[in-house]
Structures are given as C-alpha cells and as structure tokens.
C-alpha cells in the first residue's frame, strides 16, 4: 500500500484510523486482504444502512449491467429512472402524504444541500440561511458556510458568506435556543434579518449525535412560516431508516419544505443524492442547477430494490426500532461505566460522550484492534459513535457492543475519571 | 413517463430535448424503450469517451460485485483503490513526468473544482481566483462563482464571491487578453489584486468550444509564477483523451499546478472525480476537505480497466487523432454551407458556430428526428457540438455527420444567411 | 422653506419631526425664524454636550479665522493640531494612564468606526467583528454591517459582510450573553470562529439606551484576550462626558484597545472624529487609511478650548453627575406614571421606555408643541430619550422635564395602560 | 512637534512630505511657524479651489458665529441651510437644466460615494458596481471596494465586495475599454453580470490625472441605459471648477444620474459633501441613510458665499480656463525636458508623468526646498501634480511653475533618461 503515501493527497483520513486494505464487504462484515474479518460499526458513515452488498441489489445491478442498461444518462429519461421515481412515489411519498418533487442533484450530500440553499435563497430573495452549532452539511463553499467545524471552515481559504449561526437545541446551558431565535427575529434592530431558511439536521451526525426534539423542529417550522422562511431538514445521515422510520422527522408532526437526501439513498453505497422540494417551491428553470452525474443510473437500480425490499410495509422499521432499544440499553450500561459519560443520539444513530476526544479515540483504537470498525464524533471527537448497518444480525450487534464494553473497561481500569482529564 | 411531470423537479433539462426513454447503451449507440436506435454524439457531455458499457469494464465490474468487492469504502484503503492508484501512477503520471498527488474529492466535477479553488486560496492566502468569460466549472457556490453563464449564476440566489473575470483568449475582438491581464497585474492601482490562481478550461466545453493556444496557457503559467499564483487547468470535459492525448494540455509545454478531472475518468460514466495536486501544494490536513462518496469503489475498478486498455501505449491517442482529422474535415465542409459559420474546438471536441441559438437548436432537433443525439453549446447556444465517443466506429461517425449535414442543408434551404437573422 | 421639498432628498429625517427653521442656538436654547425659543433635549444627538455656541469656543474660533489660521490642512502639521494633540495628551490621556495613539480619521463617527474595524482585521488577520443587538455604528458599508437596524441595513442594497451578531447584555430574557459567547467560542464546531474584535457601545444610543455593566465589558475584554481579539468601545455617543466622566467606561476597570470618538469631540458640534489606538496595534502604513477632511482644523481649535475649559479638573464631571441624579429622579417619577414603563440609560444619557413607538412619538410631538426638542430611541422607537446639553442650567433642565411630564400626563389621561396597547 | 511622533498614529502621511508646522493660509500662500511662506500647489487636494481663507467667506462665517448661528443642526431646517439650497438651485442646478435632488451625506467624499453606491444598488436591485483601474473613491468599506490602490485595499483587512473592475479609457494599450465592456455585457456567459452602476471620476485625481473623453463618458451613459444601470460621476476632486466649469462633465453632452461632491464644495475647505440624485431615483425612506454631521452648518454659510461670488456668471470659469491654458503650455515645456515624459490631466488638474515615482518624488522634494508645496499622483506616484487654487494670481502660478522647472532641470542634469531608470 505504499502507493497511498506516494500518491494520495494528505487529505485522506479514515484510512489513517484503519490502516488495512479492505477487499470484501457483506452486510456488517468487512474482510481485509489478509482475510481478517471486522464488524462494521461505521457503515460508510450511514451510507450502508442496508449493509454491504445486499444480495438483491447486487443481483439487480449485475442484471442491469449485463443487459447493457444505461450506466450514464445525464438527466435523460431511462427505464431505471422511471422505475425509481415511480417506486419512490408509491412507497415513500404517497403513504406519507408528501407532495414533494424530486430534484436529482449531483450525487453527493453537499450538492443536495447546495441545491437546497440556492433554492431557498432564490424563492425568498434573501441571502441568509440559519444554521446551527455543530452542524455538518458539506465541503463545497455554499454548504461549508453552514458547517460548524472550524478546521473544515478554515479549509475554504476565504470568508464564507450567507449563513448565521444559532445554538442547536440544548447546545448552550440555560439558553432556550428557539426563544432566542424568535426574540431576535422579532426585534427589528437585532441585526439578525429574516432568513431564507433554517437548515438543520434532525440528528447531528458529525456534530456529536445531538437529537432535536419534535418541539424544537415544530418551533422552527412555526418561525419559518411566521417570517416567510423555509425549513430545510438535512436528512442525509439521519434519514433512510437510520432512526427507525424512513425520515428522521416522521411522527413529529412537522413537514420540512426541502429535504436533502444522500448516503444510504442508493441502498448499496453508490453515489446518489436528491433534494425533495415542496412542489410550489419548485421554481427552477430547466438546467438552472445542473451537473453531469445527477441521477446515477446504477443507483436508480439499487435504490429501487431497497425501497421495494425494506419499505413496502413496516417490518423493517420495527426491526430497526427493536435493535435501537437493545443498542440504547447496552450503550447506557457502557456509559454508566464512565464517570460523567452520557448517551447521545436517537434510534440506530447512537453514541456515548466519554468526555474527551483522547478517551474516545483510545476506545475506538482499542476496538479496531479487536476487529471493530468504529469512529468518533463531536466537536472535540468526544463521542464514540455507533452507526451499524440496520440489517446487522442481533448477535453481531451484541458482539460489537461487547468489544466496545471491553475497550471501555480496559481504558477506565487505571485511568482517572473524566472530570480530571 | 408521466412520473417525470408529476414528480421530477422542473430543473430537469436534457430530457426535454430528447423526450424518449432510453433503455440500453453500447458504445456509440443508444436504444429507447421502443427499440429505436440512436447515434450518441453527446456521450454524457464527454463522460463516455470510451462509449457506453465497454465490455471489459462491464466484466471487471460484474466480477467485483459478484465477489462482494467493496462498493462503498469512504476513503479507506481497498484493493480496488490500490490498483487504481498504482495504475494511474504507472500509466499516466510517471510517463508524463508528473509528480502530482491524487486527491479523491467528491465524485463530481464541481467538487474537484471546489477542492482546487479552496486549496489555491489556502496555499496563497489570497481570495481571488481569475476565471474566464464563457467558463463553466460547476453549480456549487464556489465553482458557480467561476462559471460565466448568467442564468446559472442567478440560480445561486445571492452574490458570488472570490472570482474576477477576464476575457478568454480571443473572446474580445482586438483585446490581447494575456497582455491585458499582465498590465492589470503590473499596475498596483488597477484594483485587480494578485490572485490565488488562474482557473481555465483548455477547451471550453459549455462556453462554445473555445480552444486556448499553447501560447496562452504558457502565458498564464508565466503570469502565475510571476505573481505567486497557481494555474488550475480544469480538464473535466477536455481531458481523458477528448482532444487526443490523456490531458488536453499535453504537448503544449505547460504543466498546471492543479488539475480537476471527472466525467470520463471512471471510463464507464460512473460518478468519479479527482484533483491532481503538485506535491508541494498538498498542504491539506487530514479530512480538511472530505465527503462521503470521494473515491467511488466501482469507478476504481472500471477506471483501472480503462487505463490499462486505452493508455498503455499511443494506439488509442492516434486513433482519436485520426478520427479528429476526419471530424474536422467534415465539420469544415458543413460550416462552409452556412454563411458566416465557423468551426470551433479541438480534437474530438468540435462544433460549428452556426450564428444563432435558434439555428443551432433547429439543427439539433432535426438531427434527433433522424436518430442522432446531439446538443448545442455557447453563450447563445449557437454552436452545434459533436462529442461522440472516442471509440465510435468510423462508419457510425460518418453516419452521424451525414445526419448533421442533411439537417443543415434542410435548414438553410429557404432561410436567409446568418448575418440577417 | 419650499426649497426642502423641491430640492432636498427624501432621506432627510429630523426636520420632519421639527418642521420649523432654526436660526440661533445658545447653550440649551434654540431659536426659530419666528423668534420662538425651544429647549434642546436632543443636543445634536449628543454632539453638543457643551451646548450651542459656547462663548469661549466661539471666541477662539473667530480669532483663528480672523488671523487666517489654517482652515483645511489635510493631515499636515499645524499650530492648531499641535495644540490639540498636546492638550488631549495632557488633559485626557496621561491622567488616565492611556498610552493610546490618536488616529485622525474622516470627521464622522462612521469613519472612525470603519478605521477601527479595518485595523482590527488587519492586526488579527481575521474577518469577523462581533457586534451586538440594537447596536448603531454608522451608515458606510463596513460600519453598517455592524449596525442592527433592519431598515438601515436594507438601505445598503447588498449583503453586508464580516459581522456576527450577539445579544447585548440583557437583550434576551434568560440568556447570559457573555456565557453564551464564551461557550460558542470554546466550541470548535460552533461555526462561530474567533473574531477580530468585539465592537460595543458601552451605552447604546440609538438602540434604546441600553447600558452595559462593568462586568459585561470586563468579560468581553477577558474573552478578547483569551481568543486573540480586540475590544472596540464605540464611545461616539456615550463618551465626552455624556455619562459623567470623559469616557463612558471610566471607573469600570476595563481599557478598550480601540476607541472611536466623534460627536462632541470638537466641543462645538463641528465635524470631527478620531480613533484612539493602543500603541502596539498602530501598525498602519502611512496613508493606508486616509481622507481629505481628517483632522478638521477649526475643530482642533474648539476641541482644545473644550478640553481646557471642562476637563482640567473634575468640576464638570461632578456637575454632570449631579444633574444626572436629578434627571434620574425626575425620569423615574415620570416612568412611574406609565404602567409598565421603565427607566433606561446611564448618566445624562437617559430615557423612559414607554412601551411603544406610538406612545413615545406622541409624547415627543406633544413636547415639541410646548417648546421642547426631544426624540425617541430604540428598536421600536419606544424610548423617550433625554440628551440635554451637559451644560444646561438646572432650571432649564427642570423646565424641560416638566414639559415631558405634562405631555405624559396628558397622554395617559384617557388612554389604557401599556400592556393593552 | 514631538507630540506627533509620540501621539499621532503612524497612518499620517502628508506631514511626512512637508515636515513643518503651518500656521496661516491666504489664497495660494501658506506660512509656517517660522514665518516662511510657501506657494500651495496642493490646495488640500483640490479642497481649496478658491484658496485659503477667502475674505468674503471668512466675513460671512465670522458673522454667523458671532450671531450664535446654528453650528450643528443634524438635518433640521436652518436659515443657513435654506439659503444654501436656494442658492445652489438658482446658481448651479437651474441654469444647467438639472432636476437633481441634493442629498446631504456625511461631510466626506467617501460618505457621498457610499451613499451613491447604496442608492444605485437599492434602485436596481443589483450588487455590482463597475469601477475603473486607478480609481480612487474613499476608504470606508463600500467606497474602498471601488478604489484601485492595492495598498489601500489591503488596509481593509478583508475581501471587498460588490465591485467589478474595468480599464479606464486608455489604461491598457490597444484595449478599447468601452467596446470591451459592451461586449462583455452583451455576452450572457461572460460572467460579468449587468451592474447597478458605473462609477467613474471624469478626471482621476489620485490615479494619475487620467482624463476621460466626452465619447467615453457618453458611451458609459449609453451602456448604463442599455443595461438598466446608473452612471455615477465622482466629481469630488474634478468638480467645483477644477477643470473650468462647475462640473467636470459640462459641455460633454452627458448627464450623470448620481454625482458625489465634496472637497471644494464648502468653498473654504470645511468638511462638507453632498450627493446629487436624479429625482426619480430619490427613493430613500426618511433616515435610511443618516449621520450626525450631514449638512455642516458653517459650510452652508461659506458654500453659499462661494456660489454667489464665483458662479453667478462665467467670469470665474473663463479666468480658470485662461490659467489652465497657461499651465498646459508651461507643463508641456517642462515635460519636454524629460525624455518620455508626458502631460496628464485637464483644466487646472494637470501634471507631468515623469516616468517613475522616484523621479517624481525627488522633483517634489526639491520643489518644497524652494518653497513650493506639491505632491505626486499615479499608481507608481509617477506624476508631478499641480492642483493650485483656481484663484491663484497669475504671477504666483508662474513662480510655482518656475520652481518646478528648476527642480526638473536640476534633477535631469546628470541623470540618465527615463527609459533607463
């Protein structure tokens, strides 16, 4: 693997935590060149909610390729695209009463977020998007402005424009974020002008698995309506079943105006993204936002299979919720081992804030030594984050958690409590 | 196909010109649901330089999928990635004496451009990127600032920052663009501060197939060096063999500092992009620019096959150059049919400026009626653009050109010359 | 006065509240063309702290003009400038232990603020200035970005850059602004990057006479030092004796790094401004910030007289403080007449929040009918603001307050309490 | 004068070229503390077009002050303001058929420019102002963006927004600036969007005394009308008689939409500025752009005297034109002494480009030794600039020119020609 040091940019990152060469993946199991197997609690940062290489998706994709199905079709009509759109409408949109249009953006989350930000500004004629502390929305200049991480922001090399930052629910002790936003918007001399949109992750993936309440999301929607702004729910990491239902905001009695989706949307981890748009906001002119790879044809094939396999009834959601309960119980127990630690997140998007990045990093490193791929999250990398495939067998989920627990026990034996670090 | 009107965003575009449903592609031939065949002179806007569904790429990809090869691996090491990097180094970089590092960006051209712009700003500590009239670099906010098209820029919904615009070579009658840029940079009161970089397409794809000369590119490189700036050659549409050699600037005695690649890089039209970085400029910190889909694993497989199949010797380049000569001859003849028309472009990136968007649109529509998929280009859509697969059989290339010629002849019969339109 | 409607821009404002033509001013008394006299509780928005036409300043200025003293000297050395600088150093800076340099900016407050913002950015290499809700700092694009008022901001016609807004002390119920700022700065993923400076009015003049505590200002200074930022105290309206001492922050154990001064600095209401700069921050190159009218020569003459007359001992400050006590007592009594009303401000920068702009406007209009020039302040113009000359005779101060009280009594007779408006 | 080193900011500039302390000024003569007299060829950078301390202005101002006339009146109606407006309308606007409204901005040129830029953006709903190479418009952030000088721009400490730069007429050899601007505006993919306004100095004061032709200004006006933009003529340095007529663009058959005025507007060098606004563009809301010192009352008095004394017939303009002819002849002769040198400017705004800043600086320094106050101009400070009061006696003008000629002769004796420097 010397070629990586020789020829890949220093910007590479995950490979530094997991310095092996992976060769195979099947559901929650990764295999490296030496044949060693790993449990995958990272799942492509939630891009592999259905695990690696689902056999039905594989079969459909191989069939498509074998038959010279279109691999690249710009945004032209194809049979694969037709089938995906019809399935998405039938299985996802209609049952949830959603009138949203589907905008095929470039196949990355950041592109879907950029499209949402552009559309919100275009529709409202306003510049400012309100984003939240610890938010993560992407690396291109529009989305990067909405991303909180100082290091990543600095990578932009110039000032980032068009975003005002507010505390996420619960981010500041003693500050009722919603009340503060409302007070500032109601004060015509606050210097905080009415925004084009609120852009929020219902559960913050990179920012430490902070989960917004239904009250908070509904409150934002109310403020958005009051001030002529839009609500953008970035469900890129939290959506596609990660918290149980298809969208993370289901059951909260709130309907976002724009919904960027990516990561697990293709089902198989292929690059694919889309923006759901409230139909009256779909004021784009043809090609006003375009891109070569919008509408990945291979992803249409696998995404359709995923929708048909997992979302035509509530079986999968219930299975996820059952696993989430188990995960919550186990992680609570693990958190209890560490003085000051606390459980974070929601559904199968869970982690433990262990108090410092140093501790969390040490725990993850120890896990990897024992065959578990797992990463940290949070402003200080202080959260040990579990993003297992939703399809992981229960026994393997338990096995992975055992590895975490052992790593924690080993770490805390002989260490001082968090408060003293 | 009613689902498109019902559920796809108004932003869709190419499908409006070609209102059929494609189901198969093989080299330069597309097939629609009704079984009708089309010659493809659009080739995914140069994303399919090797045609649709190359059999060797297909086989390798099916093999990879069948064997549970990694489909999504973030930026971790995988066998597919190792093989791609080693092959790219061996077949492309080393023979051309290029020390560049490969940065895996998100799998779209705009992401590679954004990474280049960010890096240029980070390295130089300057904000401004010089871009050129009629340039097209992408739709996310950083790249959009560098894109010339007013309609697309307006889609951003807010002011775009960090870009100064200069005339592309030959864009303004009587203006020596290089001399003007130099004079402005030499004048400390010009208000045109030394930039972070010059960002240029060696041949402008969307902007009307304008081709920069070696003198112009070398001149920019000289100015870049004189003023501590970088030269970014956006070879997304013009690279990967489109003009003959792998890079469009080969043989011009100029080496860009940063080179965004995308479109045909995967070989098979899969979403894939990379940024080549002069090694001393690779000052990124780990993860400073990241993204879920950087390094598309399936694309690693097909891209490697493409490199091995087409670039280990100069056979393919010579074939392309031969076809380009034929294309130039035929298009010159066609241009001669239209008063005032002129040939544009270079290599297999060629077109005819027919004087107006109305004429060009009518010609392309007539072509499609006769089974040819072809599009316009240029600020006023005034160029009929030929972007056939480089692998197109000569007979089929001739057949497509016959269709164009017939459409032109039919159009000009009974119309007044261009000047009077 | 028909010429105003015919030829002056619609942007004119104060003349709309006081539709008479003033011809003379002497201390706190204005006279109109008809010979009617008015008590001046506006005092040029605190530009006339020493009243109109102080006889000693008049005499010195007439003497200067008569003797062909320099009226305009760019920033060249003149006897008037030398005398001013020496006096300012001797009377103001040295006794307060201030090492600050004096930067002669353009003769307006906004220019002094712009100079401070530019210098803070230049020194720190950072873009962002933290400004506060309800702040007012000027109308040119740099200062306007820091001004809170939405209407004035909209007048800029484009997005305003480089400012992040935080709640002023006490602006948001239940929000400890200082704690929130600190928490956001301590969180590397907050999206709130370390700023170049905090820009604050110790007492907000236009924003509703909100007064920051010593704890708050000291806290900002501590945060500034902790994060490598500067503290800019905009003492344009609150300085030059308005709150008692020369600077509004005296006695608070906090020393700002940059202090914009204007308004009453000339003593006689002539255009004059300066920026005080901590000497190690005086990194300007010669002429890096320049301007034709920086250093108004006539103002040097009158400002020197003012310093010598009022600030060589503490007599004037004590007189001001005595008047401020009287003012506070009287305004408290007046506030008590209005259900829900409350006293605002500090020193001789006082007012009553009467609950609505409608009420405050009606009170001020009634006052003017009875010969008192007085204006409102606050985000909703809800504060009746008293900015009498500090030199006003006590009897006249009482007389003006009697007019306010009468207006309030007349207003509330027959009206419902505030809460019901 | 030790206080300057001790207490004035390093930013001070002119005093470095003229290290004496001036005490008196009368018409074109300055006197220093030691009683030495100087001829003033700088005239407050054109702020003293009527010389120092005009006796009629002095008398009127002393009379005003003696009678307790209003010194500071915000933007309230006063007798001095009424008289100024009526006189300005009668003497300047009506005879020239100008319907413009007068907007009282803060009393500096930069403030008048900022008001113009804001209004142009507000009226058109567009961000971009086109400014020109070597332009100088002020130091506050809005105007600074339009200023060309790199050093001054860098003083802003952050990116400057909202301005696109084009070559001034003749700035680039072989480039027809007007044709290029038109071509770029006509190209919808040029990336040069239709601007809010063109902002131009008819004669560039700081930028090297470049004078635009009537054709160029009319061409800009035509382009402005074609593209819905405004023409802003910054006549701050070139207006108020400096080129002969009151406005520098008189006799050119072009009427700007917005005209910032300052410098000599007060007549006596007092801080005073105004923006003339085509009446249908006067869409400001009351106080939308405000400021404490807009409408300097003392300046109203002296400005009115100046208008009545110099502009009620064409005597003064003809005298200026006669002096300008003499100046042109003498400077042409001087230029002929220096190989490669050339005459710059128009009217009484004239200079000689001597080929380098070093030469120009040396000439000016030698002049000062012989009692002439004179400065350089231009991107490289390469122009020796004559800005004598228009009221200078002819003999004194000749005397000053003799000093320049002697300095030039002394400089070139023993030096090599320009080309070799």
From TrEMBL, chains A, B, C, D:
<dbReference type="GO" id="GO:0019491">
    <property type="term" value="P:ectoine biosynthetic process"/>
</dbReference>
<keyword id="KW-0032">Aminotransferase</keyword>
<dbReference type="InterPro" id="IPR015422">
    <property type="entry name" value="PyrdxlP-dep_Trfase_small"/>
</dbReference>
<dbReference type="InterPro" id="IPR049704">
    <property type="entry name" value="Aminotrans_3_PPA_site"/>
</dbReference>
<keyword id="KW-0663">Pyridoxal phosphate</keyword>
<dbReference type="InterPro" id="IPR015424">
    <property type="entry name" value="PyrdxlP-dep_Trfase"/>
</dbReference>
<comment type="similarity">
    <text>Belongs to the class-III pyridoxal-phosphate-dependent aminotransferase family.</text>
</comment>
<dbReference type="InterPro" id="IPR012773">
    <property type="entry name" value="Ectoine_EctB"/>
</dbReference>
<dbReference type="Pfam" id="PF00202">
    <property type="entry name" value="Aminotran_3"/>
</dbReference>
<protein>
    <recommendedName>
        <fullName>Diaminobutyrate--2-oxoglutarate transaminase</fullName>
        <ecNumber>2.6.1.76</ecNumber>
    </recommendedName>
</protein>
<dbReference type="GO" id="GO:0045303">
    <property type="term" value="F:diaminobutyrate-2-oxoglutarate transaminase activity"/>
</dbReference>
<dbReference type="InterPro" id="IPR004637">
    <property type="entry name" value="Dat"/>
</dbReference>
<dbReference type="InterPro" id="IPR005814">
    <property type="entry name" value="Aminotrans_3"/>
</dbReference>
<keyword id="KW-0808">Transferase</keyword>
<comment type="pathway">
    <text>Amine and polyamine biosynthesis; ectoine biosynthesis; L-ectoine from L-aspartate 4-semialdehyde: step 1/3.</text>
</comment>
<dbReference type="GO" id="GO:0047307">
    <property type="term" value="F:diaminobutyrate-pyruvate transaminase activity"/>
</dbReference>
<dbReference type="GO" id="GO:0030170">
    <property type="term" value="F:pyridoxal phosphate binding"/>
</dbReference>
<dbReference type="InterPro" id="IPR015421">
    <property type="entry name" value="PyrdxlP-dep_Trfase_major"/>
</dbReference>
């Amino acid at each position: 693997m010397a070629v990586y040091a020789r020829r890949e940019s220093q910007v590479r990152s995950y490979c530094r935590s997991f310095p092996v060469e992976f060769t195979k993946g099947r559901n929650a199991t990764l295999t490296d060149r030496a044949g060693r197997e790993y449990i995958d609690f990272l799942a492509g940062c939630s891009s592999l909610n259905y695990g690696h290489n689902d056999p039905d998706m594989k079969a459909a994709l191989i069939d498509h390729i074998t038959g010279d199905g279109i691999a690249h079709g710009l945004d032209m009509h194809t049979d694969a695209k037709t089938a995906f759109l019809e399935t998405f409408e039938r299985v996802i949109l209609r049952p949830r009463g959603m009138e949203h249009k589907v905008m095929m953006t470039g196949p990355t989350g950041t592109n879907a977020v950029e499209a949402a930000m552009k559309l919100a500004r275009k529709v409202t004629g306003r510049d400012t998007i309100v984003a939240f502390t610890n938010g993560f929305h992407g690396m291109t200049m529009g989305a990067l402005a909405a991303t909180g991480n100082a290091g990543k922001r600095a990578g932009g090399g110039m000032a980032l424009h068009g975003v005002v930052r507010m505390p996420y629910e619960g981010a500041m002790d003693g500050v009722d974020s919603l009340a503060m936003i409302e007070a500032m918007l109601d004060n015509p001399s606050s210097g905080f002008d009415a925004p084009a949109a609120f852009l929020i992750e219902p559960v913050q993936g990179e920012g430490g698995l902070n989960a917004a309440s239904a009250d908070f999301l509904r409150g934002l929607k109310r403020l958005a309506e009051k001030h002529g702004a839009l609500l953008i729910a970035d469900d890129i990491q939290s959506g596609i079943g990660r918290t149980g239902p298809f969208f993370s905001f289901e059951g909260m009695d709130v309907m976002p105006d724009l919904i960027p989706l990516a990561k697990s949307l293709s089902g198989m981890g292929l690059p694919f993204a889309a923006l759901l748009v409230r139909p009256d906001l779909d004021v784009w002119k043809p090609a006003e936002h375009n891109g070569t790879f919008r509408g990945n044809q291979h992803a249409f094939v696998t995404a359709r299979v995923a929708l048909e396999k997992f979302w035509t009834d509530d079986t999968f959601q219930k299975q996820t919720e059952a696993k989430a309960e188990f995960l919550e119980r186990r992680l609570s127990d693990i958190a209890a081992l560490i003085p000051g630690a606390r459980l974070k997140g929601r559904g199968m998007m869970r982690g433990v804030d262990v108090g410092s990045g140093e501790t969390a990093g040490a725990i993850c490193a120890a896990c990897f030594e024992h065959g578990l791929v797992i990463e940290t999250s949070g402003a200080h990398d202080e959260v040990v984050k579990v993003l297992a495939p939703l399809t992981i067998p229960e026994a393997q989920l338990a096995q992975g958690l055992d590895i975490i627990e052992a790593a924690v026990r080993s770490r805390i034996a002989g260490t001082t409590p968090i408060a003293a670090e």
